[in-house]
Amino acid sequence: MTSGRTWKLYAAAMALAVAGYQLIPENGWWESCWEVAIGYAGTAAIVLGVRRLPLRDRLPWWCFALGIWSNATGIAVAIYSAEVLGWSDMPTPSDPFFLGLYPACALGLGLLIRRRDARRNWTAMVDATTITTGLGLLAWVYVIHPAAQDTGMSILGRTAQVAYPVGDLLLLAMMTRLLRTGGSRGAPFWWITGSLAAFLVGDTTWVVLGNLGDLGAHLEEVLWFRRGLDEVFLIAFTLFGIAALHAGARELGRTATPQPPRLGKLQLVALTTTSLIAPAILATQLYHGEITDGPAIVIGCTALFLLVVTRMAQLVRQVELQSRQVRELSRTDELTGLPNRRAWNDELPRALEHARRDGAPVTVALLDLDHFKRFNDSYGHPAGDRLLKEASAAWHGALRQIDTLARWGGEEFIVLLPGAGVDEARDVLARALAATPLGQTFSAGAAQWDGAETSEDLVQRADAALYAAKHAGRNQIGTSLPGESTRVHMRSSA
Predict the structure, then answer these.
(1) pTM
(2) Residue 182: helix, strand or coil by DSSP?
(3) How far apart are CA 281 and CA 289, in angstroms?
(4) For the sheet containing 442-448, what is the strand order?
(5) Which of 82, 171, 179, 448 is buried most deeply by CB count within 10 Å?
(6) Same domain, 295 and 432
(7) Are residues 369 and 297 in the same domain?
């Protein structure tokens, strides 16, 4: 049976099982056995589904299977503890099993995140920490702090009650971080995310019901409502199994190519909303005339402020880096990697100014590949591009370290030779001509600066010397001294 058919059959069967949960007798044993069966089915689906994966990719899924199994087992232990042992007050033997979901799934998510991201993504970590901090403050004020102060429970009971929202915050942080990873975002990715979201929605709903007092207690007594809430957890069990059985599970742990960090609209809304949680809690307590969580609000506000500042600093650095990259790209020839004409136009005036100040000679040379059009027509444009790249690399190696080679345009290149008169420049160019690859040649024109002419005039004289070399038969170097006529040097005499 193909994996495509397997996950569909499993999903259909589980959909019927979850829907049928509303129809079973109103009996705790019936309900618990139904829930445990769906939970164990999800565990089995994960274990069977990941057998198709390479061994190194199975560990995150085994962690997920352990978490689902532990949570489902907690349901069985809870009904046994309540109906047989008569234990109902927290902590009960079921709490370690229920709580086992959180570290197991968090470990699986951590392994998955590490494999999807080739390197640490600090912006994603800041975003996840910001959202978790804001919601963590909300959980502290309305869940954790009241539970910790509940004198009607033992210390172990309060510890167990506090552990649940802490576990939810751990899952929230890992889920948020997973959403900020690169890599494949196929169906398994969203089913895992949906499962985690279902666990969080279910737990949050129970917390809200507990804070609603009599209304919450009344809703819990409504059979269809209570079972509907249980079905949220059953859906969470099922989605993990569907994700593991799907063929796309192979892509889930693939390392992604690093992408520039971005701040989308949804991210901005989420970060803005969570950043406003602390002042919203403060405003609510001020409205009721009593600030009961001042220290927590101060700590939360401070942490959120520092996280926002850190995120802004990251964005500024990102913009600066991108600006620098754009500036470098605008000054670099895409094909050869050499400076382009724009970079040359910035460099030459500076070189002439240095030569004027130091009283040193400087020469500019234009190089033009001979019969380049014929080469392109004979071998094709890809071969022509390869020739340009190989020739520029060979020339660069033949020039002096202080020389600057730039692409002037098409098959034309230009060289700046500081500290060199026209004779020394001719010798350097002769070495470059000898190094030209693929049996090709170039014509060149070199002009020594007269100490007064403009950059444009100097390049124009080099161009005239190049034209003379081409007119004389190519594969030659023409030179132009200040105040003298152009001379052409055959390759053999160079």
Answers:
(1) 0.71
(2) coil
(3) 12
(4) 404-409, 412-418, 362-369, 442-448, 476-480, 487-490
(5) 448
(6) no
(7) no
